[in-house]
Design a protein that fits this description.
Elements: H1 3-19, H2 29-39, H3 57-67, H4 80-83, H5 131-134, H6 136-140, H7 150-159, H8 166-171, H9 177-189, H10 197-202, H11 212-222, E1 245-246, H12 250-259, E2 264-270, E3 273-278, H13 279-285, H14 296-299, E4 308-309, H15 331-339, H16 359-370, H17 377-384
Antiparallel strand pairs: 1-4, 2-3
Length: 392
C-alpha cells in the first residue's frame, strides 16, 4: 500500500482525535443547558430572563451556532468566539486588548462572558442594557466584525442553507435582527458557573471545602482589605459585584502613561521571557494609542471620567489578564495596586486607600480568590464545542 494511501486512510481518524470533544452528547446538551439557565448554580441567584425572551433549547442551540459563525463578519473570519474563547473562560488570555477585523486593535480587554447574565449593564462602560441588543455594535464596528449594516447580516443568514428552518423551529418565524439578538442572548445567559469551593463552604455548609489560608483570605476580603464593599457577598448568594462604576485610579494612571510614555516598554513573548522594546519601534508598527475615559463616554458627565463597572470576581484565577485594558497579567499585580491605594489622584474613589496588607496577608487574599473557581467552569467549554463551529 502506498504512503499516500495510508495517509488518506489515517487522516480522518487523526482529525477526529484532534477535534472530537468527549463527554458532552450533541443530542441533549441544549436541554441540560436550558435547565441550568432556569435553575442557576450553588452560590448564585436564579438568572432573570426577559418575559419577551424566555429561553428554550432551540434558542440556545441556535445562539451557540451564531456565536461561533465566522461567516457573519465582513471578510468571513471573525466571530464572537474569536475574542471570547471557551477554553479561556470565554475571554482571551493571550491578548491584553482584543483584536478584530484585519488585525485592528480595540481599546479594551475582552472580558469573560461567564456569569455575565448577572450584570445589569454590559461592556466595561455599561453602554448596553441587555444581551438582546448588545451584539449589534460588535457586528458593525470597523475594528471588530466590520459589517456594513445589520441588514446585510440578516440577508446573509437567509442565504446560508444550514440555517434553513432554524429560526422557524425556534420562533415559528423567519430570521430577523431582533431574533438574532434573542438567540444570542439565550445562549450567553446560559454561561453560568458557580458551585466553587467558596460556595460549598459559604452556602453549602461544607466546612472543609476551603483551606485555613483561604478562610483567612475571606476574612481579609470582607474586612481589612475592604474588597466586598464593591465585590459584594450576600446571605444566600454572591454576585461579587455591586453593578456600579468606580474610579479606582487605574484608568487615570493609564491615561497618564499614555500621555507620558516611557522610552522602552517590556514585551513578554513567552512566560518569563521579556524584551524591552523602544518606544520608536512600537510606534513604527502600531497605530496611535487612543484615550479611554470610561463611563464618561456614555454619560458625558465629567464626574464619570475613568469609572468602569465592577467586574464579577468568580473564576477570576482563570480569566487573566485583568482590568479594563488587560494591563495586569497576574492577580498579584492587581492586589499590589490596591494595596498601595491605587493611583491616588484627586477624583479617585474614597473606597480606594492604602491597605497596609503584609506579604502573608496578600498571599492569603490571593488564595481566597483561587477558591472562587467553579467546578463547572470547564463544562461550559465542552458544551460550546459539542457541535462543529461553522466555517472551520
Amino acid at each position: 500500500m502506498s504512503i499516500s494511501r495510508l495517509i488518506s486512510l489515517a487522516l480522518p481518524f487523526f482529525l477526529c482525535l484532534c477535534f472530537a470533544v468527549p463527554t458532552v452528547r450533541a443530542d441533549n446538551w441544549a436541554v441540560r443547558v436550558l435547565e441550568r439557565s432556569m435553575t442557576g448554580s450553588l452560590g448564585l441567584p436564579v438568572p432573570t430572563h426577559p418575559v419577551e425572551n424566555r429561553p428554550t433549547a432551540d434558542k440556545i442551540r441556535l445562539g451557540r451556532k451564531i456565536f461561533f459563525d465566522r461567516r457573519l463578519s465582513l471578510n468571513r473570519t471573525m466571530s464572537c468566539g474569536m475574542c471570547h474563547i471557551p477554553e479561556q473562560g470565554f475571554g482571551n488570555h493571550e491578548l491584553q486588548k482584543a483584536v478584530g477585523f484585519e488585525g485592528r486593535s480595540l481599546r479594551r480587554n475582552a472580558p469573560t462572558l461567564v456569569n455575565a447574565a448577572f450584570y445589569e449593564t454590559l461592556f466595561w462602560d455599561g453602554r448596553e442594557t441587555g444581551f438582546e441588543t448588545q451584539f449589534i455594535s460588535p457586528l458593525l464596528a470597523a475594528n471588530e466584525m466590520a459589517n456594513p449594516s445589520a441588514g446585510q447580516v440578516v440577508a446573509l443568514i437567509e442565504e446560508l442553507s444550514d440555517y434553513d428552518g432554524a429560526f422557524e423551529q425556534a420562533f415559528g418565524q423567519p430570521v430577523s435582527l431582533h431574533r438574532i439578538g434573542e438567540v444570542l442572548a439565550a445562549y450567553q445567559r446560559s454561561l453560568i458557573a458557580a458551585n466553587s469551593p467558596f460556595d460549598r463552604w459559604r452556602f453549602g455548609g461544607d466546612t472543609n471545602a476551603i483551606s485555613e489560608q483561604q478562610q483567612r483570605g475571606y476574612q481579609l476580603f470582607t474586612g481589612k482589605a475592604g474588597c466586598s464593599q464593591c465585590h459584594q457577598i450576600g446571605e444566600t448568594s454572591a454576585l461579587f459585584t455591586d453593578n456600579a462604576y468606580h474610579d479606582t485610579g487605574y484608568g487615570w494612571m493609564r491615561e497618564h502613561e499614555r500621555q507620558n510614555p516611557p522610552s522602552h516598554h517590556p514585551v513578554e513573548v513567552a512566560p518569563g521571557v521579556v524584551f524591552h522594546v523602544s518606544r520608536k519601534q512600537i510606534d513604527d508598527v502600531s497605530g496611535p494609542s487612543l484615550p479611554d475615559l470610561g463611563r464618561y463616554e456614555v454619560t458625558q458627565n465629567p464626574a464619570d471620567s475613568w469609572k468602569y463597572r465592577t467586574p464579577i470576581l468568580r473564576n477570576v484565577a482563570l480569566t487573566a489578564p485583568y482590568m479594563h485594558d488587560g494591563g495586569f497579567a497576574k492577580l498579584r499585580d492587581v492586589l499590589d495596586f490596591y494595596n498601595r491605594g491605587g493611583a491616588s489622584h484627586d477624583q479617585q474613589s474614597p473606597l480606594i486607600r492604602p491597605l497596609g496588607l503584609t506579604e502573608a496577608e496578600l498571599q492569603d487574599l490571593e488564595a481566597f480568590l483561587q477558591a472562587l473557581t467553579s467546578a463547572d467552569f470547564a463544562e461550559l467549554a465542552r458544551e460550546a464545542r459539542v457541535e462543529e463551529p461553522d466555517n472551520w
